Amino acid sequence: RRQRQMCIRDRGVLLRHLPEARLVDISHDLLPFNDPETAYVVRNAVKHFPPGTFHIVLANLFQHQPEHVLLVQHHQQYYCLADNGLITMILEETPEVVAALPLDRSVARLSLRMVDVMARAIKQVAAGAAINTVGDTGVSIHVRTPPRPYTTNQYIEGQIISIDHFENVIVNIT
Q: With contact defined as beta carbons under 8 Å apart, do 13 and 112 qualify?
């Protein structure tokens, strides 16, 4: 099974708040719970988008019980995603600015509600609001690093990050 792509309802929620948005889905072929693959795909796609682009990453939203979602600004790009460590895997460093966007505890934590919170924050920032006025920038985020190869004088041990439809293998050894 492939990772949950941005479904029609999620797109509808975004377009309700941001009717002028152009949505580009780059991740619908990702395997579920393969964070290294997700980080690799997003990291390598983001560099082709213009500055000021908002990237919504709906991967593994419920890996942890979410109290908030993140709005991140880094190198003139914005990211909205769960606080599951994926942002540090994507960036391979600490994000420049992070704001926690709180989720309403009185309603069910569904992906639609999370997308709604993200869309509202994107609308505010796109209209000129500073991130620190949209969310809590004092938040501590989950930090994870992508898998790294292990090397000795005799061998290199790496991991397979992804295998695409053409059976090309992406590894973490460069």
A: yes
SS3 36: helix
List pLDDT tens digits, range 52-77: 999 999 888 777 778 899 999 999 99
Residue 89 backbone phi and psi in degrees, to 5: -70, -40
**pLDDT per position as a tens digit, 110-150:** 788 888 999 999 999 999 999 999 999 999 999 988 777 88
Q: Which residue has the tokens 């029609």?
A: 8
Go through the chain and tell me how many residues it has.
Answer: 174
Indicate the residue type of 27.
S
CB 2, CB 41: distance < 8 Å:
no
Do the strands 150-151 and 156-157 form a parallel or antiparallel pair, or are they unpaired?
antiparallel
Nearest-angstrom CA–CA distance, 67 and 139 = 11
